[in-house]
Amino acid sequence: MAILHKEATKALLQKVLSFSKADECEVSLRGTEGGNIRYARNAISTAGDISTLTLSVTSSFGKRSGTATINEFTDDALKRVVARSEELAKLAPENPEYMPLRGPAEFKDAPGYVEATANMTPDDRAEAVAKSINVAKEAKLEAAGFIENTTGFNAIMNSKGLFAYDTDTNVVFTITTRNSAGTGSGFAGRGFNDFRKLDTHEATRIAAMKANSSADAKAIEPGKYTVILEPIAATYMLENMFRGLDARNADEGRSFMSKPGGGNRIGEQLMDEKVTIYSDPFHPELPGPTWNRDGLPLEKTTWIDKGVVKNLAYSPYWAQKKGVQPVPMPSNIIMEGGTASLEELIKSTEKGILVSRLWYIRLVDAQTLLLTGLTRDGTFYIENGEIKYPVKNLRFNESPVIMLNNVEALGKTERSVSIESYRSFMIPPIKVRDFTFTSLSDAV
Amino acid sequence: MKRKDFIQLSAMGLGALVLPKFTFGTPVDPSRFLNDGIDVKIKKELADVALNAAKAKGATYADVRIGRYLNQMVMTRETRVQNIANTESFGVGIRVIANGCWGFAATNNVTREEVAKTAERAVAVAKANSRVKAEPVRLAPQEGYGEVSWKTPIEINTFTVPVKDKVDLLLSVNDAALKGGANFVNSAIMAINEQKYFASTDGSYIDQDIHRLFPTFTVTKIDRGSGKFETRKSLSSPVGMGYEYLNARPEDKVGGIVTRYRGRYDMLEDVQNATRDVEQKLKATSVQPGKYDLILDPSHLWLTIHESVAHPTELDRVLGYEANYAGTSFLTLDKWKSGNFNFGSKIVNVVADKLQPGSLGAVGYDDEGVKCGQWDLIKDGILVNYQAIRDQAHIIGLNRSQGCCYAQSWADVQFQRMPNVSLQPGKTPLSVDDMIRNVEKGIYIIGDGSFSIDQQRYNFQFGGQTFYEIKNGQITGMLKDVAYQANTREFWNSCTAIADKSDYRLGGAFNDGKGQPGQSNAVSHGSSTTRFNGVNVINTARKI
Q: In sequence order, which residues have a C-beta less than 8 Å from that of residue A58 and are 6 or more positions away?
């Protein structure tokens, strides 16, 4: 019973609320179902099936709140969880930032649920993995990969009459292929709502091509280079920036979005004019949730418009304090691109480096959002519009904010997946000048 | 990853490798923590149900872990409590070998019927996977221990300390920071209690009660004029101890440029020092890039050991099982077999240890029923061993596992995780002051900061909390914008001095991430203050 339909969810949450004696009460229900297979050395190493359903109740008396959660659904259990949240609320200290719950609102249906993904079986996963292993074996490479599918739903209801429900499906696939000498390695990552769009054969073929073409890489001098980041590399780099689109941190003076002297950078030309970044839960290629836990609807929101900071997220508390409307954090991110293909970006490059993937990105300086990390699984030197040879991996120290000031060209936006959070984004291949590499790595 | 997880990640800030495990589980009333859970006799009965059901379906080996995981997190900022989370997670994970292949299944419905069904599911998974198997699993022999138990030797159970006391401590820490001139301060206490019962078809029934604690804070100071800000994190460590960790005695304090702590921690004193440090950091000199001799305090060096020594000696990485996620390792089997691969200079001795008192990795038995111990990884600078579990031991010529198997909860399958991995202190008497006295041009680094390393663990970059310039044997002032980059082998071969055992201290991590789906592991790394010569230092200041 991990996935409940809208009407059944509504009836269950109404029943829970009927047991409440608090000033305000909010109940939420989340269920997930799914499974995974992990493989390495061309054989399955682990596999699992996971199903969860959790009810959470937050009760408030004045500015004191308590939350309790349960995964049993008898009437007694429901009464118990409500009572427990009320006991915890009475014991809790007052929260000076407590915000009253919001009343009813209309939310559009989320478009992220695909029946074909919800119906995936262990055999479907095994078949997808078998296809991938076969490609690697034929190419005389070793495959290590992971496939995971999830079907989930979220719902909230509160004592002021608000009710919201959404459901979605996701499948994520990552594959690394390596040659037996350990001199070449390739990777591909895919994320979709619709399992039918996932082609593990094609993704493994790309990883295999990268493994073979990255073998016996040459060393080059670290320094500033024109760089083309493939979408999977750009996504990981930019994900770190998207998490920082918060007005409070900026206003408090401790974010790259803080303005020297006070306030935030809304209205400032912070990046190149080619950069436009927005969120839109109704984007056909990247559907997202249409409401958030504060009971706010999520609509199309532009964050960076032609390089100018248009919006930062304001929590209901911070919005009230600053006298503005709340702006929810984005539920997805789309960066507008151009029309060029990756091949065309390479063709237009006199000297540069093609980066297939980035790895182990960590924050070095929050002030400038300086990040460090390395290239991985296919780094290539470009000369006169052609890939000349593979180069050894390089460590970079670069800020995505500085990088987006140095944009030369953007390719066509495509759906891409973060290799750390497994979250999907719409990101183009990005060509930038003066990308800073600071040392060489022997890692393959 | 779902929206909710994204929001959680956003709230956590940047750079976490995995979500810490205390975000999972079911919130409960703290009073439930005082309940002992189900009786050991009932656990044994349930375990036998699982083992018998697995064998009846054709398993040649089975183990069962009945786990109750209690987590508490108290988070505050400035004058208010942000969150108090009390969670409990209880269930059973069953792992089997059938047709020469592993299978795993787990349930939170701990009844005899459901446990039997789960064991059968695990066998079914193993049989399904055996269709694509390569070689049959080969397990190192393991004797059964019968009914045994082990407990973290704690003095005060953190879960018995009232939440109010923890809130009061954190708010007094915050108050001290604000009174000292800080603009912002976040503080938290995290506590974990793993009550784990393990049984296997080898005849072991092992009951363990494991405690961990991590108090921490971050102080932020802003220079409004320039718009610059600096932070300083606590110099505490996560520990395998009870609440006694927060009762520091004079002998637990290490003097010097700033007070550091050995075994026990004084949070109130450290926050006052941090508030002074952060003020100084704003005024510090931006570092001139170049080669420096580095003097690394144990509060910093633990993370460099973790990334550059402990990870590359994980045997699953060496073999390629992590190739698609955490990566592989430059310490390939041929280097180990040669018997003369000089990982570091002759004074570098690194020990793997699952017993060290107060450490995060200390347990009596690992999660596949192997009694824990200690062994050398690097001996006199030479790579001599790895970290292995039962199905890997034969690959490195061992007839017994080294006891490195761990799962973050009952719901996750156990796999190879690192033990405590520590640099041994210098054998001849050497104080930190004497070490600094011999440095002409150097930087003394305290506390861990930014960290990044490649997927085979060659090239790394580390920051820190505070950096002091050393000129001609004297500390001359504070530096900022410092990060060092090196190649692991060159770095450890540039190790020229290690302070003696009187300076030895543990650092560690609560949430080291590995695996797909990701799991976190808690681990400590000890060292004394250590000198590395001629390391490349870069300046990290930028302008946007």
A: A25, A26, A27, A65, A66, A67, A85
> ipTM of the predicted structure?
0.94
Q: Which H, E and C letters describe A6-25, residue by residue?
A: HHHHHHHHHHHHHCCCCCEE
pLDDT of residue B29: 59
Instruction: Please count the other Cβ atoms lying within 10 Å of the Cβ belonging to residue B402.
Output: 27
- pLDDT at residue A432 in the model: 98
CA-based nearest distance A1→chain B, Å: 14
> Cα distance from B86 to chain A (closest Cα, Å)?
9
Partner-chain contact B105 A41, CB within 8 Å: no
> What chain B residue is nearest to A147 in terms of C-alpha separation?
B516
The residue in chain A having the minimum alpha-carbon distance to the alpha carbon of residue B448 is: A364
Convert the pLDDT of each residue in A168-185 to its tens digit.
Answer: 999 999 999 999 999 999
- Which residues on chain B are in Cβ contact (under 8 Å) with A329? 6-7, 10
Instruction: Kindly tell me if the per-residue pLDDT of A122 is higher than 90.
Output: no
Contacts of B455 in chain A (CB under 8 A): 359-360, 374, 376, 443
Contact A289 B3 (CB under 8 A): yes
Q: Cβ of B454 and A376 within 8 Å?
A: yes
pLDDT of residue B35: 67
Record: contact B167-A364, CB cut-off 8 A: no
Enter the pTM of the model: 0.94
- Looking up tokens 């973290």 gives B152
A188: chain B residues, CB-CB within 8 Å = none
pLDDT tens digits for range A181-215:
999 999 999 999 999 999 999 999 999 999 999 99
Distance CA(B103)–CA(B123), nearest Å, equals: 6
Which are the contacts of A221, defined by CB distance < 8 A and separation ≥ 6?
none
The pLDDT, as a whole number, for residue B36 is: 67
Å between A381 CA and nearest CA of chain B: 20
A116–chain B nearest CA distance, Å: 19
Token pair, residue B209, equals 């009660």
What is d(CA B42, CA B44) in angstroms, rounded to the nearest whole number? Answer: 5
Average pLDDT, chain A: 95
The per-residue pLDDT for B133 is: 60
A64-70 β-sheet, strand order:
A64-70, A43-61, A24-40, A141-158, A163-179, A185-192
Q: With CB atoms and an 8 Å threshold, state whether B328 touches A178.
A: yes
Residues 6+ apart with CB under 8 A from B75: B81, B82, B83, B84, B186, B187, B188
Q: Do A253 and B183 touch (CB under 8 A)?
A: yes
- State whether residue B307 is helix, strand or coil: helix
Rounded to 5°, the CA angle A280-A285-A287 comes to 45
Q: Residue B389's closest CA among B196, B521, B223, B236?
A: B521
Among B388, B323, B311, CA closest to B350: B311
Interval A429-442 mean pLDDT: 98
**CB-closest option in B106, B227, B320 to A41:** B320
Per-residue pLDDT at B37 exceeds 90: no
Q: Closest Cα of chain B to A75: distance in Å? A: 18
Distance CA B14, CA A436 (A): 21
pLDDT band at B33 (very low <50, low <70, confident <90, very high): low
pLDDT number for residue B12: 27
Q: What percent of chain B has pLDDT over 70?
A: 93
Number of H helices, E strands in chain A: 10, 21
At which residue do the structure tokens 């193993």 appear? B126
Separation between Cα atoms, residue A82 and residue A74, nearest integer Å: 13
Q: How far is A231 from A426, CA to CA, in rounded Å?
A: 8
DSSP state of B72: E
pLDDT tens track for A136-145: 999 999 999 9
Question: B489-513: per-residue pLDDT in tens?
Answer: 999 999 999 999 999 999 999 999 9
